[in-house]
Amino acid sequence: MKHFEFNLPTIIRAGNGEFRKTGTYLRGLIEGTRIFIVTDPGIEQTGFVKQAIRMLEQQGFETRIFNQVRPNPRDIDCKTGGKSAREFCADAILAIGGGSVIDAAKAIAIIQCLGGEPQDYAGRDNVPEKVTPIAVVPTTSGTGAEVTRSSVITDTAKKIKFTIKDVNIAPVLAIVDPELTYGLPAHLTASTGMDALVHAIEAYTCKLSNPISDGLALQAMKHIYPFLRTAVNNGNNQEARYNLMVGSTLAGMAFSHADVASVHCMAEAIGGLYDTPHGVANSMFLPYIVEYNAEAELKKHATIARTIGIAHQNDSDQYATARLVDEMKQLAEDLSIPTFSSLPEVNEKDFVYLAESSFLNGSTPSNAREITKEDYLELFKMAYSKENKGVSPLK
């Protein structure tokens, strides 16, 4: 019988139009008047930041913008942002953007309050006290970072990613408004949507799953999978956008209270080395890890296939899991997500390094099946050659 803890300190305000209440929500939640806004140049161009500033000023807040966040957020940018937030004497941080912006905001809050380097707080439960309150407005339906206690940052010197996991950096408020995703390009809808689906799958199958995270993960899959192709093909479909947004948040809650696993370990390895978009990287390796893990968690993988409607209740677990492997490949292809071998920067000489980096990732022990550096190396080779081994019991 598992012992587990479920701690969700984040207030979630979800639904169309919720963004327009940002100022009111923060006024009722935050002490003080100084709001440090973390975003990126692309989000600034959408006008969302200007709207937020106008709403905040109406509530008597002062603001300062930090827009130096890049995809796969860098440690050096987080340190710069933390210094700027400290100089501003920020009473709260408002992150407006995708997962990179939200993860950066969490690291910025740490540096503002505690100083040092983001790497000083890597690992689990290494943030000794509550940081500056963080409110988040996600603009993609992918990372679920609005409800997680995690921040994934790139070490620019070592070209690897590290994760800070601590309830002290969990946002106090998440404003989850599907309307902010209507203009999201198809390729970003695809990659972030696949990221959310991987979160749900890995949360459900990893060793740290629990009954509550399982329920959240399965429900997330029901919101994400049936609507992902529709959202990519028709970005203004309100039903699809709503379901992806809610599904992403549910998946974030699930993996934050369980963990991710080897798909993310491999994705973060190539993200650190090649700066590959995270959702794209997850999509590349998902089918191979599902197949690899089937030996250890056949029933759960079969349950996923049945939950998303690609296998019937009377199908064998082996058949259902094989269908899941095939469909995850087909889904990525239908969404025009590139394969690992199609990335021009990929070099087979890097595979040993990537395998080592994957193995050292903090989520490797959470993978459903024991996995070694040699296993990772073989999986990188398989993904590169687009070869399936038919890992037992799928032979």
TrEMBL record:
A Pfam family it matches: ADH_Fe_C
Record bears the keyword Oxidoreductase: yes
Keyword field: NAD, Oxidoreductase
Domain of life per record: Bacteria
Domain Fe-containing alcohol dehydrogenase-like C-terminal: 189-384
InterPro entries per UniProt: ADH_Fe/GldA, ADH_Fe_C, ADH_Fe_CS, Alcohol_dehydrogenase_Fe
PROSITE patterns linked: ADH_IRON_1
CDD domains on file: Fe-ADH
Domain Alcohol dehydrogenase iron-type/glycerol dehydrogenase GldA, chain residue ranges per copy: 9-178
Family: Belongs to the iron-containing alcohol dehydrogenase family.
PANTHER family registered for this protein in UniProt: ALCOHOL DEHYDROGENASE, ALCOHOL DEHYDROGENASE 4
Descriptive protein name: Iron-containing alcohol dehydrogenase
Species this chain originates from: Fictibacillus barbaricus
